[in-house]
Specification:
Blueprint: H1 2-17, E1 24-29, E2 56-70, E3 73-86, E4 90-102, E5 113-128, E6 137-149, E7 152-164, E8 169-183
Antiparallel strand pairs: 1-2, 1-8, 2-3, 3-4, 4-5, 5-6, 6-7, 7-8
């Protein structure tokens, strides 16, 4: 499973290197209100099978690229990479997502406006020194709004993280902000 995740990571991230004919965004997440995706609290998402963390810090960044644009609608793919350090374990993870943008004005950048994003694979481990995690699979979806000031991107979102284990299913909501750089096609 880890080998498959690493292969998907390399293949998907390579599309951003060659994306000169597409709009793309590289953004970093500020600590969220609840602190689950980025911040100080992640007991629910990274719960260990035999205990809790004494302290925890997490971070994440994301790249999004437009795949197909028709009128004011844009289909997008996203790659989120993050990590954490804690009292017991450290690790890196990644997420793959797909989303749909609806821009308010026809002349606006493709990856602006209201957005619905779905991450079927969310925060999957690629590098850890850990005991087994309680939640074996995570998915997420968010609804947000992306606004650009020239080439500065601000993405305000509300995300729901779905946690799956052999014993339970849980939904963790959060609200946050991501700040990034917007690269329209032919900008370099």
């Amino acid at each position: 499973m880890k080998r498959l995740c690493l292969i998907l990571f390399v293949l998907f991230s390579s599309t951003f290197v060659f994306a000169t004919d597409f709009d793309f965004i590289i953004q970093g997440y500020l600590p969220t209100i609840s602190g689950f995706s980025a911040g100080n609290y992640n007991q629910e998402i990274y719960k260990l099978e035999d205990g809790q963390f004494d302290w925890y810090k997490s971070f994440c960044g994301e790249g999004r690229i437009d795949i197909l644009t028709k009128d004011r609608w844009t289909l997008s793919a996203g790659f989120l990479c993050g990590g954490f350090v804690s009292s017991q374990v450290d690790g890196m993870n990644f997420s793959l997502g797909v989303g749909l943008y609806h821009k308010n004005k026809p002349e606006a950048f493709n990856l602006t406006g209201t957005c619905l994003y779905f991450y079927p694979m969310y925060l999957l481990p690629i590098m850890f020194n850990y005991q087994p995690l309680y939640y074996k699979w995570k998915s997420a979806w968010d609804i947000g709004y992306n606004y650009c000031f020239e080439y500065l991107s601000l993405y305000l979102f509300q995300r729901n993280i779905l946690l799956f284990s052999a014993k339970e299913f849980k939904v963790v909501p959060e609200i946050g902000l991501a700040i990034g750089l917007y690269f329209p096609k032919h900008s370099f």
